TrEMBL record:
Residues covered by region (Disordered): 92-136
Protein known as: Antibiotic biosynthesis monooxygenase
InterPro entries found in the cross-reference section: ABM_dom, Dimeric_a/b-barrel
Native source organism of the sequence: Vallicoccus soli
Keyword list, A-Z: Monooxygenase, Oxidoreductase
Gene3D superfamilies: 3.30.70.100
Length: 136
């Protein structure tokens, strides 16, 4: 089972959301039946984020949601998700790609074709916990 929740996050709240989503991912990953998960952000809309988790089945996911630690630490974020379907039946799967960090430059919203940037531009999450720690 695949569970995908999406969130509208204001630019000034991006770093705080990422930190909270990572904590939620840790809490969910510790539950029986969780097969992994990811936190992501839309490349075309930096205000749109997702938390996606994979589960052994719907029962494992429902049991995880009833765990005390999940109710206390994860449900506050999960309840802020956009109101849309979140649970998907997995019909096919391939090996997972390696995790990475954001490649979206801090000035991505202002620099475009024909406008110069710099040889190295920090990402919009640099200095705000945007670099994944080891093991993420």
């Amino acid at each position: 089972m695949l569970v995908v929740t999406r969130y509208a996050v204001a630019p000034e709240g991006a770093a705080a959301f990422l930190a909270e989503a990572r904590e939620v991912l840790d809490v969910l990953a510790a539950q029986a039946g969780c097969e992994g998960g990811e936190v992501g952000r839309a490349t075309d809309d930096p205000g749109l984020w997702t938390l996606a988790t994979r589960w052994a089945g719907v029962g494992a996911y429902r049991r995880a949601l009833s765990a005390y630690d999940v109710r206390v630490r994860a449900v506050p974020l999960l309840s802020r998700a956009l109101d849309e379907p979140t649970a998907y039946e997995v019909l096919d799967r391939r090996p997972e790609p390696a995790a990475g960090t954001t490649a979206r430059a801090a000035d991505a919203g202002t620099v475009g074709v024909g406008r110069a940037s710099a040889p190295h531009v920090p990402t919009d999450l640099d200095g705000a916990g945007g670099t994944p720690s080891a093991g993420r």
